[in-house]
Amino acid sequence: MKKSLFGLAIVAFTISACTGDTADFKSTTLGARVYPLEGGIFEVVPPIGSTASDYWCAASDYARRQLGASWQTPIYINRGMAPGEASGRRSTVLFTLNPVVSEVPHSPVRRLGAFHVGDSMTVQAGENQCKIFPRWF
């Protein structure tokens, strides 16, 4: 019995070490992971295969439930799509509630799904992103 428990502990440790998710995270209602970083920045890691809407949805869910942001609080992109600082995943986005200077001039034409530093959306608008494509699985 002791050997099998020890074996299970080794397997669990090995699996957790291989995932690269060593920091503490919060799960959102749709299963994304959000890692709080220093300076009010948080890293959003939605499930594999997610769309841009899923990033905004997760960021707004975290801001509302964990940070206590109001519906009209803006969420800003602090760093666009890049490898994670806390999670180790290749496709993460860093968000913050603190205003960030935009990296590109404001233009009436913007690429959907692109994450530009300084882009923002209110918590409510981000929450609305959760409802664009309902999950049926």
Describe this protein's structure.
The model is unreliable at 5-21 (pLDDT under 50). It is globular and about 30 Å long. The chain is an alpha+beta fold and 137 residues long. It contains 3 helices and 6 strands, in the order αβββαβββα. Strand 2 and strand 3 (41-45) form a beta hairpin. Helix 2 packs across helix 3 (123-129). The chain has a 6-stranded antiparallel β-sheet with strand order 1-2-3-5-4-6. It has one domain.
Low-confidence parts: 5-21
Quick check: average pLDDT? Answer: 77
Describe the global form: globular
Q: How many DSSP helices?
A: 3
How far the N terminus sits from the C terminus, by CA atoms, comes to 38 Å
Q: Please describe the biggest sheet, giving its number of strands, its sense, and whether it closes into a barrel.
A: 6 strands, antiparallel
Structural class based on helices, strands and sheet pairing? alpha+beta
Helix content: 25-40%
Q: What is the spatial order of strands in the main beta sheet? A: 1-2-3-5-4-6
Q: Could you tell me the radius of gyration in angstroms?
A: 17 Å
**Amount of beta strand:** 15-25%
> What is the number of domains?
1
Give the SSE string.
HEEEHEEEH
Task: Write down the oligomeric state.
Answer: single chain
Number of strands: 6
Keywords: Signal
Organism: Parasedimentitalea maritima
Protein name: Lipoprotein
Signal peptide: 1-23
